[in-house]
Amino acid sequence: MNYSEKYKGLTLIEVLITMAIIAILAAVVYPAYVDVTGRSNRSEAQRELSRLAFLQEQFFADNRTYTADMTDLGAPADPYITESGNYSIDATIGAGGTTFDLKATAKGNQASVDASCITLSIDEALVKTASSENCWEQ
């Protein structure tokens, strides 16, 4: 009987080397995955803020004032929670109802995953601000 017929399977060293390679790959890939999902969720908030700003302008055209009640804009609740549940969006109206500020605040896991961009906002002049630089995609 030769060596290859006697010993079939993997040695402990081969299994450990394979596990080490998998661990190294996971250590590199996981942070990138978390970053991509955080930015993806942030883009949902950006999209919803832009959409709600447009709806505020429609509301203003009809009523000559902006609204702080998100349900007036067709949202299911006030404050409005995005479809994924990662952001809460609320409106603040200036004196006389001629200005507004829509603010999205990260909730739950999104607040820890995307800690540098916890808040995003947009106003009636479509000025976009955030809790830190580079939160709004250009």
TrEMBL record:
Transmembrane as UniProt keyword? yes
Give the originating organism.
Answer: Thalassomonas viridans
- What is the name of this protein? Prepilin-type N-terminal cleavage/methylation domain-containing protein
Which terms under GO biological process does the entry name? protein secretion by the type II secretion system; type IV pilus assembly
Q: Which residues form a coiled coil?
A: none
Q: Which UniProt keywords apply?
A: Membrane, Methylation, Transmembrane, Transmembrane helix
Instruction: Output the PROSITE patterns linked to this UniProt entry.
Output: PROKAR_NTER_METHYL (PS00409)
Alphabetical list of InterPro entries matching this protein = Bac_GSPG_pilin, N_methyl_site, PilE-like, Pilin-like
Record carries keyword Zinc-finger? no
Q: Which GO terms describe its cellular component?
A: type II protein secretion system complex
